[in-house]
Structure formats: structure tokens, C-alpha cells
Amino acid sequence: MKIKDSWHSSRLDKEVHVARWGESGTPVLIFPTAGGDAEEIERFNIVATLSHLLEEGRIRIYSCDSVAGAAMLAGEGTPEHQMYLLDQFQEFVGHELVPAIRADCGEADAEIVVAGSSIGAYNALSVICRFPEAFRSALAMSGTFDLQRFLKAPPTDDFLRASPVHFLPSMSGPELERLRTRFVLLASGEGEAEDIGESWRAAHELGTQGVPNRVDSWGKDWIHDWPTWRNMLRYYLPDLASGVRPHPGPPEA
After folding, report:
1. For the chain, how far is it from start to end, CA to CA, in angstroms?
2. 183 membership: H or E segment, kind and range
3. Assessment of whether the complete model's pTM goes beyond 0.85
4. What are phi and psi for residue 199, nearest 5 degrees?
5. Cα–Cα distance list, 226 to 71, 193, 220, 249 (Å)
6. Is residue 156's pLDDT more than 70?
């Protein structure tokens, strides 16, 4: 059963929609792609793909509007405004959405599995690095991790705060120590429109800081599209939801 909610975020100055599927189990936050809304993952059959986990009560899935990604895709405002929204969207996730998920689960310290594809993968990596106390593992699929080339403007402080490949090298202290207890899985095809080099760059920054991570190449038969991401979620999420590191993909034919 799907539950929908929305509220006005003071950080984003927008009404943000959130959807939930499932009644029990590990909370899983799945970000949409760049311009997607909270129900995009249902329209593209991600929810149906994971229906067995939902029906067994192993997971409950959450998703929200891709506010910053939609602004970038639409060319909303200046590049500086879009960089501001990248930062504020992550603040929304950490300080508004995470507490809402924990309240819905009835656990004040519930740890969340986070996932996303394309720019959704950027969001997944960003929030586990920025809020490691809230997220225990991340599945970043077909990731685009350096958004500077899309913004075409010098990076602002907002951008540097929001971009993990830029802020990871300077991380230190308790937040880094907590992040080192987490796990990031970077999965990518090498077919049409895929760029596994983005995943290797993110893995390098994570590894240099001692953060457990792995890059899985699914090879040239897997392209930058929903069938790839549905298969990745079907393959990896049962283990990630159980707190187990999955075997490297893709699954054998």
C-alpha cells in the first residue's frame, strides 16, 4: 500500500512530496533521477520489482521529489541558485526527511539504506557521507558524481558542501570515523551512456579516507536505463536490507 504525504520545507521554500510503500522492515530511501518526483520509482516499476520484499515485510520504501535535480534540469535561476539548492536539498533530507522516516518507523535511531541511479546516485552518496549517523549503506547506481560540468560556473561554498568528491578529501573527526563504519556500493554498466569512470573516482575518494566501498562493473550489456537499475536493486537490496554486503554483480545468466 502506498502512503503519500507532503510538507512545506523552509530550507527549500517548496512543498515537497514523499511517498512510502510497505508497512514494516528496514527503511530504504530511493532517490528519483534528476527531474523525478516521489512516485517516479513506482511508474518505472522499481516498486513492483521489489514487491516480494515489501510483501514479506523485509523493507519499507521511501522516496521524495528530486527538488535540486529538477531545478538543474529546468535551468531554474542562476547556477549559483542551483548550487544553493543542492546543499539545501541535502539539508532537507538530513534534517526533515530522516526524522520523518524515523518517526514513521517508530525508531528514533533507525538506520536507513539509501539508493539512487544517475543523479539519484549522487544524492545517495552525498547523504551517506554527510549524515553517516542516519544511513548505514548506500547503493549508487550508474552514478554521476561531479556535477560541475553541468553547472558551468565556478563552484560556490554551497556546491563544495554538497559534492562528496569535493568534500571527502577534507573530512575529519567523528563524522569521518562514523562514515568508516558504513558501506558504499557503486554499481555501473559499461554500455550506452554509462561512465564507470565516475564510480571509480568516487571510490578513490572514499578509499583514500578509509571508507569501505566497492565498484561493481556489470559490463557492456548494461546501459544507463531503468532495466539496469531494476536488476541491480533486485540483486543487491535483499542483502543490503539485511545488513550483509552483497556478492559482486551482475547475477549469472
Report:
1. 32
2. strand 183-188
3. yes
4. -65, -40
5. 22, 12, 15, 17
6. yes
Radius of gyration of the chain (CA): 17
Confidence tier at 168 by pLDDT (50, 70, 90):
very high
Distance CA 71, CA 51 (A): 31
pLDDT score for 253: 56
Q: Which three cell numbers stand for residue 67?
A: 527538488
State the chain's mean pLDDT as an integer: 97
Furthest-apart CA pair in the chain: how many Å? 48
Residue 35, helix vs strand vs coil: coil
- Which helix (H) or strand (E) element contains residue 253? none
Q: Which residue stretches of the chain are H helix?
A: 40-43, 46-49, 51-55, 67-74, 79-92, 98-105, 119-130, 148-151, 157-162, 164-167, 173-179, 196-208, 226-241
175-202 pLDDT, tens digit per residue, is: 999 999 999 999 999 999 999 999 999 9
Which residue's entry shows cell 533507525? 110
Query: pLDDT tens, 225-237?
Result: 999 999 999 999 9
Neighbour-count burial of 19, counting CB atoms closer than 10 A to its CB (0-12 exposed, 13-18 middle, 19+ buried): buried
Q: How is the chain split into domains, by residue range?
A: 2-241
Domain 2-241 in CATH 3.40.50.1820? The answer is: yes
